[in-house]
Amino acid sequence: MSVPVLTFFNNKGGVGKTSLVYHLSWMFSALGRKVVAVDLDAQANLTAAFLDEDQIDDLWERQTGATTIFRAIEPLTQVGDLKAPKLIKVAQHLHLVPGDVALAGFEETLSNMWPESMGDKSLYRPFRILTAFWQVAQMAAKRVQADIILVDVGPNLGAINRSALIASDFVVIPLGADLFSLQGLRNLGPTLRSWRSLWKKRVENWKEPEFDLPKGLMKPLGYVVQQHGVRLSRPVKAYDKWVNRMPGIYHESVLHDASPASSPADDPHCLATLKHYRSLFPMAQEARKPVFSLTPADGAIGSHAQAVKDAYSDFKSLAEKIIEEMDKATSTRSRND
Ligand SMILES: Nc1ncnc2c1ncn2[C@@H]1O[C@H](COP(=O)(O)OP(=O)(O)OP(=O)(O)O)[C@@H](O)[C@H]1O
Ligand SMILES: [Mg+2]
What we know:
Layout: E1 5-8, H1 17-30, E2 35-39, H2 45-50, H3 53-61, H4 69-73, E3 88-91, E4 94-97, H5 107-116, H6 124-130, H7 132-143, E5 148-152, H8 159-166, E6 170-176, H9 179-205, E7 219-226, H10 236-255, E8 270-274, H11 280-287, H12 303-336
Parallel strand pairs: 1-5, 1-6, 2-4, 2-5, 6-7, 7-8
Antiparallel strand pairs: 3-4
The chain binds adenosine-5'-triphosphate (ATP) and magnesium ion.
């Protein structure tokens, strides 16, 4: 049995993907789930949220061992095979497979292998490369007996993200209340459908697979409305205009049906509306902690202390909702199998 993979995805940048993966990794582990977080963005922002610069410098400079995701897959770019990644233990139930700016160099190899995986020559190598992220994430999860793998990706629809999504059982889509974020959402549904069906064809093309392959289900669990991108000077009406379009566009683009809801508040596919945490966010980044773990010693005093408590319950509810949606999707699937 493979360990479920949950990816936070939107090709629009700055919508809060990395922040969500970081906070939910901590929250899932606080709820007793064993988590492996995997940084598949060459910007390595998730890694920078967990580790300080000296630690990252050490991982990137060290000459031996698969200290990052790229080091684990790098032998595939020559004639070698995957290496088991070295995990960073962040907390008792939370481990990280660190990111790497060098990952950007893998994009071309992945692009080249995509057509080859439909060919009639030996399919071992193309499939090994296209599923490298999934294989490495599974190796990591098995080592620490993780219950779930959380993945952060960069803001694009390139070959790295296609492989990341092929590796994903579930997808959560963070959305900002603006034109560009919603335009991104319009591209997202068709892209996920296309990747899903192209992957299925490839799996069918490899009649006798020589190792386990991901199913590439990419089941959308819902969207998270993010308020942090909203400019303070912008009128509330403009915010409402974009937010109220979310259910319609999500349903049309991602689910291919008509939305019965006229606002996210009435839409069961809206997993949460996350507040703009304002100065708590930089405070948490400075302390290298999730916002909901800030203490008076970090500067969370007065009204901030209450905001920290509220953040804890907001992220707890979101994590529980995601667990519920994953459980629902898994039991529907096993009924249909
Ligand atoms: N709820 C929030 N409240 C306040 N600030 C936030 C919130 N969520 C994210 N931010 C801030 O918004 C910025 C963008 O967030 P983040 O890096 O998580 O987005 P992203 O989607 O991962 O971006 P990219 O597409 O570049 O990877 C960061 O500076 C982050 O600190
Ligand atoms: Mg990011």
